[in-house]
Amino acid sequence: xxxxxxxxxxxxxxxxxxxxxxxxxxxxxxxxxxxxxxxxxxxxxxxxxxxxxxxxxxxxxxxxxxxxxxxxxxxxxxxxxxxxxxxxxxxxxxxxxxxxxxxxxxxxxxxxxxxxxxxxxxxxxxxxxxxxxxxxxxxxxxxxxxxxxxxxxxxxxxxxxxxxxxxxxxxxxxxxxxxxxxxxxxxxxxxxxxxxxxxxxxxxxxxxxxxxxxxxxxxx
Amino acid sequence: xxxxxxxxxxxxxxxxxxxxxxxxxxxxxxxxxxxxxxxxxxxxxxxxxxxxxxxxxxxxxxxxxxxxxxxxxxxxxxxxxxxxxxxxxxxxxxxxxxxxxxxxxxxxxxxxxxxxxxxxxxxxxxxxxxxxxxxxxxxxxxxxxxxxxxxxxxxxxxxxxxxxxxxxxxxxxxxxxxxxxxxxxxxxxxxxxxxxxxxxxxxxxxxxxxxxxxxxxxxxxxxxxxxxxxxxxxxxxxxxxxxxxxxxxxxxxxxxxxxxxxxxxxxxxxxxxxxxxxxxxxxxxxxxxxxxxxxxxxxxxxxxxxxxxxxxxxxxxxxxxxxxxxxxxxxxxxxxxxxxxxxxxxxxxxxx
Lengths: 220, 352
What we know:
The structure holds 2 protein chains of 2 kinds. By secondary structure, chain A is an alpha/beta fold. Chain A folds into 2 domains: 6-139, Rossmann fold; 150-216, Winged helix-like DNA-binding domain superfamily/Winged helix DNA-binding domain (Arc Repressor Mutant, subunit A). Chain A contains 11 helices and 5 strands. Chain B is of the alpha+beta class. The two termini of chain B are 69 Å apart. Chain B contains 9 helices and 5 strands, in the order αααααααβαββαββ. In chain B, strand 1 (238-242), helix 8 and strand 2 (277-284) form a beta-alpha-beta unit. A 5-stranded mixed β-sheet of chain B has the order 1-2-3-5-4. In chain B, helix 2 runs antiparallel to helix 3, helix 5 packs antiparallel against helix 6 and helix 8 (252-271) runs antiparallel to helix 9. The chains are: A alpha/beta, B alpha+beta. At the A-B interface, helix 1, helix 5, helix 9, helix 10 and helix 11 of A face helix 5, helix 6 and helix 7 of B.
């Protein structure tokens, strides 16, 4: 008796992509598509029912966001390994997707030649990202900019930490100033210090770090 | 003179009638006091002119007759002596005719003047309407082009690119089938997949140009940062993006317009200003959010060439469409400073 095939679930809002991705996967002797869906709520139900080994998820879906779906899957179906397949720029979304719980990120323009290889790689327990993205991460790591670890955050003063937390909760700087009862200039000074202490290069990065930290430390 | 006419224009009819009559009486009195030998007939024209210009032909004729009567009565009362009663009658008639000719000329002139004024008013109104319409059309054009670009960009990204992805997958399926049959044409199929992949990347680049700002609230910061880097590389200048505080723009149309304003300003700085250093800033304070683009180029010329005025106007339109305050001026240091300021309310704040 052969080993049972690896079950794969597809979540993509484009029928042609689903159709040919299915054909491609079925061509592999050890892989099978166990279901497909074009939106997040349906996918979540089906994945619970079919218990696939791998879910291939697009970030933009008919309804619901792919990133949210990944977070939900990680919480509710931790055994399902998620690979993100997206038309969106990996520099903007890959980090978010991987931090949300995905184990691989493939740009759609590279999918055809790589998807089967990536499926096998994540099944082997490895993370997949493109070489150029891996280089970006490596650079950040060497510069000590990745990630904003607990120890770095501990270096923040109380007021800086409060600013960091409020930004992470999604408040606008203007609202942060109001809530902390200080001027925008003060918030600006706090932000400058936070950037320096956490080794962040710009405001967008600061915001992203704050959101990520908040997500990982929701109790704070 | 014109001022006097303007002042009189605002007076009531009754006041003007009183003034005309008073003038006749006054001039009549002086005429009487100076005796009959000196002629005063020219001065009555003051009253007659006043009546003709402001009070109409009928009243002007009346004042003319009154003037002749007063003047003649005065002369007779001072003992003017004529060889025959025909002479004063003749003189009076000559004088009256002279007055009437003047009245006719003045009233005609007045009609022409009024017609001309009405015409100028009409033309000015038409021109103002035309300008407003033109402004509106320019705005609409901008909105349409923005909407269409957005739509085409999105169609490229979500439609064509996905379709091509399907095609690469189909090509890959074919390649593997051919390979399984050990056919050398499998390499061709592989090449086809690569060519389509290049097509996807090309379409994505096109889509990015048409719709540069991602819909996330921090999309503008990211897009401007990327834009600064690409501009530096592409044009061999130093273009930096600075943003001290995270600035979130929740309205994607606002973010889009701000991005295009920055793009246009940087383009102008390089193309027309020959700038070497450009600084794009996004700042937030208690009551506003400000996008600014500052360069070290030649600065705005005092008189803009025709084609440049258009770019500035479009930036101003974009700013107006998102409720912003636009300003482009020569900076103290010589370069150009372009700013678009949004009041805190209009940056569409949202509570998380």
